[in-house]
């Protein structure tokens, strides 16, 4: 019986970046990473990883994800894991959380194991920690990628405080500016008291205000332009802000305003037009 499965997971945009306080919030975006995992019961523990379409990206995370699942079940299988992605990498769209979700889920599928959501999320987060790709575990990003929709989380306790949907049917514009990623954790932690203000708005469902405020705060701390989000709003975006630790910015708008907002953002770099995702991660083959 061949042990092989394919799974997808979603990118996620940031409403509240959890690095300053441990509490965060994110929402699913319909850009997917696809992972195919094939297992061989040969007792050799030889795991091969292939990152299609991104030759510069090492397979360390995806090999770690498969290893952590096999170790969890005490199996010494060999494996081949292949990923391909629509998600810009190292950009603040949580490609690492999405990839961990997709590879762990595909490995569970290949094993024919019962789909235990929390176990899959935790093995994915463990893998991201093992590869030093996260500060808080990014449980906000991981759950938004896995379940879709909006999640509001305590990343330290790994608790979902709230799940929700945006009240409007919105398009998601993603700006990939020509700016270098800068993960200065100590500067981000200086924002704690102010991010708490934004988080309280998020907890009561004022997601547009929370996303904008969070973006201004983190862009200021990380020396990214704050004017970009304001340009988006000036051109009818309902909200806009830095996503994660950047450099990507996101803008949410109604369909009829896409061209206007896109034009405003394009002077800063490449713009991807996508939409909200409510499907999350799933096994597709
Ligand atoms: N499609 C993919 N295949 C394999 N590894 C990936 C893929 N996408 C992301 N990764 C891993 O995640 C890392 C990027 O994650 P991170 O630094 O957290 O940035 P972000 O989450 O903002 O995209 C990459 O360096 C790589 O290790
Ligand atoms: O590493 C972390 O703990 C986090 C990383 C950030 O996302 P990116 O990795 O996408 O920048 C942030 O949005 C998230 O709330 C917490």
TrEMBL record:
<keyword id="KW-0067">ATP-binding</keyword>
<feature type="domain" description="GHMP kinase N-terminal">
    <location>
        <begin position="60"/>
        <end position="149"/>
    </location>
</feature>
<comment type="similarity">
    <text>Belongs to the GHMP kinase family. Archaeal shikimate kinase subfamily.</text>
</comment>
<keyword id="KW-0547">Nucleotide-binding</keyword>
<dbReference type="InterPro" id="IPR036554">
    <property type="entry name" value="GHMP_kinase_C_sf"/>
</dbReference>
<dbReference type="InterPro" id="IPR013750">
    <property type="entry name" value="GHMP_kinase_C_dom"/>
</dbReference>
<keyword id="KW-0963">Cytoplasm</keyword>
<dbReference type="GO" id="GO:0008652">
    <property type="term" value="P:amino acid biosynthetic process"/>
</dbReference>
<feature type="domain" description="GHMP kinase C-terminal">
    <location>
        <begin position="228"/>
        <end position="268"/>
    </location>
</feature>
<dbReference type="InterPro" id="IPR020568">
    <property type="entry name" value="Ribosomal_Su5_D2-typ_SF"/>
</dbReference>
<dbReference type="GO" id="GO:0005737">
    <property type="term" value="C:cytoplasm"/>
</dbReference>
<dbReference type="GO" id="GO:0005524">
    <property type="term" value="F:ATP binding"/>
</dbReference>
<keyword id="KW-0808">Transferase</keyword>
<dbReference type="Pfam" id="PF08544">
    <property type="entry name" value="GHMP_kinases_C"/>
</dbReference>
<keyword id="KW-0418">Kinase</keyword>
<dbReference type="InterPro" id="IPR006204">
    <property type="entry name" value="GHMP_kinase_N_dom"/>
</dbReference>
<protein>
    <recommendedName>
        <fullName>Shikimate kinase</fullName>
        <ecNumber>2.7.1.71</ecNumber>
    </recommendedName>
</protein>
<dbReference type="InterPro" id="IPR014721">
    <property type="entry name" value="Ribsml_uS5_D2-typ_fold_subgr"/>
</dbReference>
<keyword id="KW-0057">Aromatic amino acid biosynthesis</keyword>
<dbReference type="GO" id="GO:0009073">
    <property type="term" value="P:aromatic amino acid family biosynthetic process"/>
</dbReference>
<dbReference type="GO" id="GO:0004765">
    <property type="term" value="F:shikimate kinase activity"/>
</dbReference>
<comment type="pathway">
    <text>Metabolic intermediate biosynthesis; chorismate biosynthesis; chorismate from D-erythrose 4-phosphate and phosphoenolpyruvate: step 5/7.</text>
</comment>
<feature type="binding site">
    <location>
        <begin position="88"/>
        <end position="98"/>
    </location>
    <ligand>
        <name>ATP</name>
    </ligand>
</feature>
<dbReference type="GO" id="GO:0009423">
    <property type="term" value="P:chorismate biosynthetic process"/>
</dbReference>
<dbReference type="Pfam" id="PF00288">
    <property type="entry name" value="GHMP_kinases_N"/>
</dbReference>
<keyword id="KW-0028">Amino-acid biosynthesis</keyword>
<dbReference type="InterPro" id="IPR010189">
    <property type="entry name" value="SK_arc"/>
</dbReference>
């Amino acid at each position: 019986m061949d042990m092989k499965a394919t799974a997808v997971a979603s990118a996620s945009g940031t409403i509240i970046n959890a690095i300053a306080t441990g509490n965060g919030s994110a929402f699913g975006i319909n850009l997917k990473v696809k992972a195919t995992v094939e297992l061989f019961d040969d007792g050799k523990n030889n795991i091969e990883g292939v990152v299609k379409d991104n030759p510069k990206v090492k397979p360390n995370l995806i090999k770690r994800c498969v290893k952590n699942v096999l170790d969890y079940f005490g199996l010494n299988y060999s494996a081949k894991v292949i990923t391909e992605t629509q998600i810009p990498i190292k950009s603040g769209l949580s490609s690492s959380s999405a990839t961990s979700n997709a590879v762990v889920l595909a490995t569970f599928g290949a094993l024919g194991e019962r789909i235990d959501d929390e176990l899959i999320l935790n093995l994915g987060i463990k893998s991201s920690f093992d590869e030093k790709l996260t500060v808080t575990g990014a449980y906000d990003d991981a759950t938004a990628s896995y379940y879709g929709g909006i999640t509001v989380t305590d990343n330290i306790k790994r608790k979902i405080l709230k799940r929700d949907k945006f009240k409007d049917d919105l398009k998601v514009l993603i700006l990939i500016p020509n700016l270098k990623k800068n993960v200065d954790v100590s500067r981000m932690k200086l924002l704690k008291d102010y991010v708490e203000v934004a988080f309280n708005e998020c907890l009561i469902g004022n997601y547009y205000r929370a996303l904008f405020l969070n973006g201004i705060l983190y862009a200021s701390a990380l020396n990214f332009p704050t004017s970009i989000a304001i340009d988006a709003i000036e051109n009818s975006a309902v909200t806009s802000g830095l996503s994660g630790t950047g450099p990507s910015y996101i803008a949410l708008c109604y369909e009829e305003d896409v061209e206007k907002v896109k034009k405003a953002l394009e002077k800063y770099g490449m713009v991807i037009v996508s939409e909200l995702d409510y499907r999350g991660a799933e096994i597709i083959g």
